[in-house]
Amino acid sequence: MIFSKSYCPHSQRVKELFASLGVDYNILELDQVDDGANVQEMLLEITNQKTVPNIFVNKVHVGGCDRIFQAHQNGLLQKLLQEDSVHDYDLIIIGGGSGGLSCAKEAAILGKKVMVLDFVVPSPHGASWGLGGTCVNVGCIPKKLMHQAALLGQALSDSRKFGWEYSQQVKHNWETMTQAIQSHIGSLNWGYRLSLREKGVTYVNSYGEFVEPHKIKATNKKGQETYHTASKFVIATGERPRYLGIPGDKEYCITSDDLFSLSYCPGKTLVVGASYVALECAGFLAGFGLDVTVMVRSILLRGFDQEMAEKVGAYMEKHGVKFIRKFVPVAIQQLEKGSPGKLKVLAKSTEGPETIEGVYNTCDYTNVPTTVFTPLEYGCCGLSEERAVEVYKKENMEVYHTLFWPLEWTVAGRENNACYAKIICNKCDHDRIIGLHVLGPNAGEITQGFAAAMKCGLTKQLLSDTIGIHPTCGEVFTTLEITKSSGLDITQKGC
Fold it and tell me: How far apart are CA 316 and CA 296, in angstroms?
């Protein structure tokens, strides 16, 4: 099917190509029908392409003139023309996040006819977003950028000690930051759309529902419904933040889904929860100079090394984040309307038997490097000390650790002995490193490299044989000497 305009030379080239291939095709000349403009608007809605020719082959949107000739050269067009399946697609993927997009691209590379459905149900406060899933839109990307914004504020403060003089009062502009971040995210959304189109994957911004075996209904934001069939389906819908299930939560509270595109500065904020998302958000909000309190049900960073988690909390507390421990909210009341307005939170103590609710997945996270982007970053790979004791027994382990003072913190007068590094070794396996943890600047960048080494079976001896790059934070791992079992003091007296 070719949507064309009779006077368009690019459309004429495409018609000549199909004619030379001996392929039957239908043409709709948009300049020769009464509702041509409306059809072109609908095509823009469906394909995000506003030019002609706009070409579909066996229900797969291929694109314009350049795309169809590219598909002809790389063989994709021939594959699409030969399709004669009982289903519309080989594969339909519901969900356009990291998993869904990766799956779609790989299937397309293998010559499969693929469709991706991605529809973000707006949050109770109306937040929605484009293609790319949580990470791109309401996760890793905006989180890291807001974290960076907060770090720049700290750098401004530090700069005076390095000789920078400025008299103007420095303040943070929330609107400027969010607009810049959302602009970047928009470019990523477009890049994902373009990548799918280049690989011949059909993308539809619609909500998918199964109506019978091998058949789904797709409903777009205007309520228009279409039906599609496929041999196989992949459900890659991910998850959304869970509300508290208490009076006033959806009416008055926002989640991380809303925060990253919030049009106004949230002001005084209560963060409920102590997961890495909660602490990261609390950290950068405090970095912007906001009054921030974290309400913790039980422990910080469940599933992470608890010594490191408590050090993260202590650093945040020292730098202005308040913590209310062993409490959970039971009701939210609105005292004043506005943006942000004013809310009252009623809470109760959690002292007593603990109950845990929620969905847990079964992925093995051993040796998957992770970083928590709290004001002082926490990077880790491998086992927490608690988990290592469970798996290997304490007598079979050795823990090497040290506090350290980043060089860039010395002149600025930032506190010594706030940064910490440790490795956990299996004595029964040549002191192989089974856990690596670092709390300090750029912890993510540090951890990524050591994670590769751990995949290769890094041992304490190999680490000690490695020459450190001086002066860096990462070099601290090459000079670890003090074990926890020795009880020796690890505080630093200089750089």
Answer: 14
